């Protein structure tokens, strides 16, 4: 009988029996292995924690109220073509107004939760991605897929913290003065957050800039909502956004249409033109876009104001193709809760140009708007309306004030300054100031989501959170002025520098790090 020779020791036993570990799992302390391991750990962490890859989650809001959000899309009162231009590829109207879409941010009932949040990039994600590829003039099947994949990785899971479809805050829970955890200026002694609650909740109608959408200013608007404002962020369908889905509930079943970014090169002046390449000139195209935006602003304002009237909210809720609003208490909780006489029209960049245009006397809008906020009025979005007859707050980012730009034969800075100066000459309050250390995107969500990348590419010197916080504080002070006539904090200071300058001499010490005031009604003659 054959004998089996056993190992002489446990050591030899250990060496005789080895597990075969796949080569890919065998540790190697090379830089490639360490990098791959770190990447795998990071992706796993993001997946488990529910955070987006290579970006930050949007922060919670700092005001005294919780914030709710609902999407509303309803057919307009009179569907119509705003301009006769058509798309070259299919001869369909380019500026046909069918519905309006906006997100409504509002102070919500304390502690109300649904667990639902709007995505920062709305579905379908590819629509936004392909739109940005079109903006970059590199749209084809390969780049479209690359843009879609990259956007999905970077921000596909990013959501807006506001709770979707929760009830409006009750009258009893509205807070007047709640101690903040951050000073609006030097972040030292806490100061009261001032909320506006008398005579109903004030309203802000917001219009976005070029290459933007309704979701990209969510933090600025939701912060104001946490302070007692009802803010409507419009999704413009004038070609200035990357992409939008139009859901028209006026037909049964509702129709869905995808509309991508389009520019001057994509349209021709008329479907009846014998020349297939007949073009609009640049000024006419911008005029058409601004006219379309103006119509959307009017429709949105009408809808928001209708929420305040008994019997009208039901119709809006029934027509809303986004199927939201019932949880928010539409229509019952909203009746007689809004201060429609304190409606402010606000916008950024192209949106600021549109807001100024909308405040021009002689139109319907000045009768429904009590004030305006213009953030970085456009430098290439057409002429700025200089004739305004309501209080106006104009804020430039540092990148907007510091860069000299010729605007229709004049320095852009001078044109903007004159708008505020003319208001004060008429006895109407006008402010023009620069937010120091900020760049053009500072009021958007982008620096909060990608702070390092945006700081590197735009040159912003201020912390992204602090920069946006400054915009919120001053906008809130302006809202209080519109509702009460009281100037406070930065708005109570005289101008310290008619021109932009880095030294910021003469500015009150408390605000010197953050603001430079060029025009103010305080001390104006």
TrEMBL record:
Family per similarity comment: Belongs to the serine esterase family.
Organism annotation: Knufia fluminis
Active-site residues, record numbering mapped to chain: 349 (nucleophile), 376 (charge relay system), 440 (charge relay system)
Biological-process GO terms, alphabetical: lipid catabolic process
Protein name, as recorded: Putative phospholipase
GO terms, molecular function: 1-alkyl-2-acetylglycerophosphocholine esterase activity
Pfam families xrefs: PAF-AH_p_II
The protein's Enzyme Commission number: 3.1.1.47
Reaction equations catalysed: a 1-O-alkyl-2-acetyl-sn-glycero-3-phosphocholine + H2O = a 1-O-alkyl-sn-glycero-3-phosphocholine + acetate + H(+)
Group of enzyme by EC: hydrolase
Keyword Lipid metabolism included in the entry's annotation: yes
Source taxon at top rank: Eukaryota
InterPro entries, per the entry: AB_hydrolase_fold, PAF_acetylhydro_eukaryote
